[in-house]
Design brief:
By secondary structure, this protein is of the alpha+beta class. It has one domain (3-284). It is built from five helices and 15 strands. It has helices at residues 3-19, 41-52, 212-216, 265-274, 290-297, and strands spanning 32-33, 36-37, 58-71, 78-93, 99-110, 120-123, 128-131, 135-145, 148-150, 161-162, 166-168, 171-183, 199-211, 225-233, 247-257. Strands 3, 4, 5, 8, 9, 10, 11, 12, 13, 14 and 15 form an eleven-stranded antiparallel beta sheet that branches. It has a two-stranded antiparallel sheet with strand order 1-2. A two-stranded antiparallel ribbon has the order 6-7. Strand 1 (32-33) and strand 2 form a beta hairpin. The longest helix is centred in the N-terminal third of the chain and has 17 residues, at 3-19.
Length: 304
């Protein structure tokens, strides 16, 4: 796999992990609830888009926060830091009825006590102080149809699966999961401290929830929605864990909001201090992810 297709596959994963838009596979019929026929693919698709994004041409904003833990064989799970996430998705209706979706997303690693962005972190496994690199991924644009995500010209190595929506007491939950294993963009011979090995893996479990009445209301094009996620993944490059067995577990919880002017002042300040291009997305055009960010700071590898 080339550097370009590695990057594309990683970007695809980020988009689909955020969107959860691939159709459910092998699930039993749901029937009609609250005026929505969830067995009708067009009605279900519109309800899903309203939950995750918008049927209108607009930007959708989501904020979340959570915690990051580490685990290695033979010792208890241990906390690493807090985590504050901010994502923006740009939605556009296409002439054929499908949707176009563009994603930008950042994540700030923060102190567990003060919630201030970390510049360094004491790694309790290696007992070394390491430089913290904020998470930033995007932009990535895709076409979304009732049958899934269409990204022409890329290597389709990733296929997250949306699970059957669940309805209870006026709430609709959209769960999905995404197990991923890709060739590591950081070769061990060049990045012995940052690379987890030949492959990099993670597994995301995400749930979005909205009121059934909002989804059934034709006047609401973007439904208020809550979200929660758990993710199991290999060590992030900046932790300098090398090929140490184990990995990371992150959990978070958040919601859609808007307009962007409602972004909390404290969160805006932190983004301006760490990843200011997130607030200037029209000028953020070069694709980024955690691996490209590490390479930018270590262009000659870990040994030089």
């Amino acid at each position: 796999m080339t550097d370009v297709t590695r990057r594309d596959a990683l970007q695809i994963t980020a988009l689909m992990a955020t969107a959860g838009l691939t159709p459910a596979i092998g699930e039993a019929a749901m029937g009609t609830a609250g005026g929505i026929d969830f067995d009708d693919r067009e009605e279900e698709f519109d309800a899903r888009i309203k939950t995750l994004g918008s049927l209108d041409d607009e930007d959708v904003f989501r904020i979340s926060q959570g915690h990051i833990y580490g685990f290695v064989p033979g010792r208890p799970v241990f906390p690493l830091c807090n985590y504050e996430n901010y994502s923006v998705s740009r939605w556009k209706r296409l002439p054929d009825g499908n949707r176009q979706f563009t994603l930008w997303e950042v994540g700030l690693h923060t102190d567990r006590t003060t919630d201030e962005p970390l510049k360094t972190l004491f790694n309790p496994v290696t007992e070394k102080e390491v430089e913290v690199i904020p998470y930033a991924v995007g932009p990535l644009t895709a076409t979304i149809t009732p049958d899934g995500v269409v990204i022409p010209g890329t290597e389709r190595t990733v296929q997250p699966q949306a699970l059957k929506p669940r309805v209870f007491d006026g709430t609709v939950w959209y769960p999905f999961e995404s197990p991923v294993t890709l060739p590591n963009p950081l070769p061990v011979e060049e990045y012995p401290a940052a690379s987890t090995g030949e492959f990099f893996s993670w597994h995301t479990v995400l749930v979005f929830a909205a009121n059934l009445s909002d989804l059934a209301n034709p006047e609401i094009l973007s439904a208020p929605a809550l979200s929660t996620y758990s993710e199991f993944l290999g060590w992030q490059p900046w932790l300098q864990m090398g090929q140490q067995p184990g990995g990371m577990m992150t959990r978070g919880y958040g919601k859609k909001f808007g307009p962007e002017s409602k972004l909390p002042a404290d969160r805006r300040r932190k983004i301006e201090e760490t990843v200011p291009e997130m607030l200037d997305r029209d000028n953020w055009t070069k694709p980024r992810n955690e691996f490209s960010a590490y390479k930018e700071r270590h262009p000659k590898g870990d040994k030089q």
